[in-house]
Design brief:
CATH topology of one domain: Arc Repressor Mutant, subunit A
CATH architecture of one domain: Orthogonal Bundle
CATH superfamily of one domain: Winged helix-like DNA-binding domain superfamily/Winged helix DNA-binding domain
Radius of gyration: 36 Å
Number of helices: 3
CATH class of one domain: Mainly Alpha
Low-confidence stretches: 1-7, 16-22
Mean pLDDT: 90
Number of strands: 21
Structural class: mainly beta
């Protein structure tokens, strides 16, 4: 058995015979077909596919290079190809080949995973939709459907910040801006599209008092919060008067027979209430004028 000494080159030639060549380069080089394939230099750095190892001071380096379009490092488990790292001049891929998740850990604890369906889970490993019909805490990104989920045991699950009086969130529909959230030093504004250049067939509101009289405000508690009584509306009743304030359909169910609940944006009742108030003020002012005229005729 040959001994590899300091300042040596290991040369495995293409004729399948092997031997040890001594040199003064302080390098161990491994060759096949009389071409160098791998080397360990005097710093202990390793080069694969290159004899010019890129050294980063203070670090141990493994430099892998390819004379062609790229390189692949394949990983197998019990003979099954489960993953690979692939590099090319325009991209770097970390690829789980089979239907298994890609898991990232720190301190030997899972922190993030990419599930085999492509969804990202952070701080939890069980749900693609934490907090949606479950109590799982953590985050998830359903990239295929463009949905972001966040769930906490308590406190805000989404925090946004801007260090100026500015727009904080923009809302788009089919690529068109339809509203947003803006903040100042002391206030938050929830904005919906309202520029006059977006509108047509503009007319003054009439009959607002009659429509307000058709609204039926109620006092009630939600089943999930039996101890709290609040003021509000039943969505389907308000929908008959101000349909744009309500989402969903009365008594709607999904394909499995589960209820699809209606919602209401009570801020959309403000224009109608303002219209009714204006009409009421006009009536009051007319009455005041008549009363003043009657008093003056006494």
């Amino acid at each position: 058995m040959s001994e590899v000494k300091t300042d040596s080159v290991v040369n495995v030639s293409g004729d399948n015979d092997s031997g040890i060549d001594l040199s003064t380069n302080d390098v161990v080089a491994i060759k096949t077909a009389d071409s160098e394939r791998m080397r360990i230099d005097s710093s202990g750095d390793i080069g694969i596919g290159t004899s010019s190892i890129t050294n980063t001071s203070g670090y141990r380096n493994i430099h892998i290079d390819s004379p062609t379009s790229g390189m692949i490092m394949r990983m197998y488990a019990n003979g099954t190809h489960v993953g690979q790292i692939q590099a090319a001049s325009d991209q770097l891929q970390l690829n789980a080949i089979t239907s298994i998740p890609m898991i990232f850990k720190t301190n030997n604890t899972e922190r993030m995973r990419i599930a085999d369906n492509g969804n990202l889970r952070v701080g939890q490993s069980t749900s693609d939709a934490p907090g949606s019909s479950n109590t799982t805490t953590g985050c998830a990104l359903d990239g295929g459907n463009g949905i972001v989920y966040g769930s906490r045991s308590s406190g805000a699950s989404a925090v946004f910040n801007v260090n100026a009086n500015a727009e904080l969130v923009r809302c788009h529909r089919s690529g068109n801006l339809v509203g947003g959230i803006s903040v100042t030093t002391s206030a938050t504004s929830f904005n919906t599209s309202s520029d006059h250049r977006l509108k047509e067939n503009v007319a003054d509101m009439t009959g607002a008092i009659d429509r307000v009289k058709a609204l039926a405000p109620k006092r009630f508690n939600f089943i999930a919060d039996a101890d709290t009584t609040v003021d509000g509306f039943l969505a389907h009743e308000a929908q008959a008067v101000v349909p744009e304030a309500v989402t969903g359909t009365h008594n709607e169910v999904d394909d499995d027979g589960n209820p699809v609940m209606q919602g209401i944006d009570q801020s959309k009742l403000v224009p109608l209430l303002t219209g009714a108030l204006r009409e009421a003020i006009a009536k009051i002012e007319a009455l005041e004028t008549r009363v003043a005229a009657l008093e003056a005729g006494e």
